[in-house]
């Protein structure tokens, strides 16, 4: 897949990096980041490397408007990112992959829940520090900013748009979508996460149908820094091995 050009429904090119053996199309793990992130976050690179070392294919990508992907950051919403993920899944299907897994972090995990609830091609889903209550998150993190004028966490390249705020409120909570997902599901959350409380990971796991598995990392922060990174990547690889791919 490394030679492909992938564009979303808005004809914007999505930046991605493939890890693994391109001739092995048994499984592809697609890795998506959270708000203000990109495909080159340390946890994403470490996860892709670990998955490839375990003998599976991995593709990490930046949602439109983020990183080196084309598009306007101000138009980056969960709803649009669901369409971005569909474009990646379409490309994987066209490349002949027999099984597709999506691993999403934070808001990218919320994207995964919505995508998997309407696309049965995503047979496996991994939620990493997964955001559940999108409205709460937006109010807690950006409630003091004015849409159209303010910025996310003071980052000048990440303007807070009204589109983003409206979409986060419209989604509200992804828990209502879990009943539509029949995919195998792995939920991983750190108990020291200060952006998405560990309680949301526990709620997500409780709302998921079998087969499902939950890993709570003691001392793990939102981005699985330090020792939590290795524990996260190992938990993912162990789970993939148990799926009898």
The count of helical stretches stands at: 7
Q: What's the CATH class label?
A: Alpha Beta
Q: N-to-C terminal Cα separation, in Å?
A: 20 Å
**How are the strands of the largest sheet arranged?**
1-3-2-4-5-6-7
* CATH architecture designation: 3-Layer(aba) Sandwich
Shape summary: globular
State the oligomer: single chain
Q: What's the order of the H and E elements?
A: EEHEHEHEHHEHEH
Which sheet architecture does the biggest sheet show? 7 strands, mixed
What's the rounded overall pLDDT mean? 97
Count the beta strands.
7
Strand content: 15-25%
Helix and strand layout, with pairings?
Blueprint (H helix, E strand, L loop, with lengths): L15 E4 L8 E5 L9 H12 L3 E5 L16 H17 L5 E6 L1 H10 L5 E7 L5 H9 L19 H10 L12 E7 L7 H10 L4 E6 L9 H16 L3
Parallel strand pairs: 2-3, 2-4, 4-5, 5-6, 6-7
Antiparallel strand pairs: 1-3
What's the gist of this structure?
This protein is an alpha/beta fold. The chain is 34% helix and 16% strand. Strands 1-3-2-4-5-6-7 form a seven-stranded mixed beta sheet, sandwiched between helices.
Description:
The chain is an alpha/beta fold. It has a single domain, classed as Alpha/Beta hydrolase fold, catalytic domain (Rossmann fold). 34% of the residues lie in helices and 16% in strands. The protein contains 7 helices and 7 strands, in the order E-E-H-E-H-E-H-E-H-H-E-H-E-H. It has helices at residues 42-53, 78-94, 107-116, 134-142, 162-171, 198-207, 227-242, and strands at residues 16-19, 28-32, 57-61, 100-105, 122-128, 184-190, 212-217. Strands 1-3-2-4-5-6-7 form a 7-stranded mixed β-sheet, with helices on both faces. Helix 1 (42-53) packs parallel to helix 7. The longest helix is centred in the middle third of the chain and has 17 residues, at 78-94. The protein is globular. The relative contact order is 0.15. The model has no long low-confidence stretch (mean pLDDT 97).
């Amino acid at each position: 897949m490394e030679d492909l050009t992938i564009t979303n429904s808005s004809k914007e090119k999505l930046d991605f990096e493939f890890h693994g053996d391109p001739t092995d199309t048994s499984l592809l793990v697609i890795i998506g980041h959270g708000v203000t992130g990109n495909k080159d976050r340390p946890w994403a690179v470490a996860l892709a490397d670990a998955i490839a070392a375990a003998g599976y294919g991995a593709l990490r990508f930046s949602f439109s408007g983020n990183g080196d992907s084309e598009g306007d950051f101000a138009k980056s919403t969960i709803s649009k990112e669901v369409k971005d993920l569909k474009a990646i899944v379409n490309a994987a299907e066209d490349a002949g992959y027999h099984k597709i897994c999506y691993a999403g972090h934070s808001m990218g995990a919320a994207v995964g829940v919505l995508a998997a609830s309407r696309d049965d091609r995503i047979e496996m889903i991994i939620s990493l520090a997964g955001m559940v209550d999108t409205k709460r998150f937006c109010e807690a993190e950006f409630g003091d900013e004015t849409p159209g004028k303010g910025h996310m966490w003071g980052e000048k390249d990440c303007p807070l748009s009204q589109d983003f705020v409206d979409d986060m409120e419209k989604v509200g909570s992804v828990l209502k979508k879990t009943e539509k997902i029949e995919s195998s599901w792995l939920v991983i959350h750190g108990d020291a996460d200060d952006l998405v409380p560990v309680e949301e990971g526990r709620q997500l796991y409780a709302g998921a149908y079998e087969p499902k598995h939950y890993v709570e990392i003691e001392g793990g922060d939102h981005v699985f820094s330090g020792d939590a990174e290795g524990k996260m990547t190992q938990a993912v690889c162990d789970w993939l091995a148990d799926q009898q791919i």
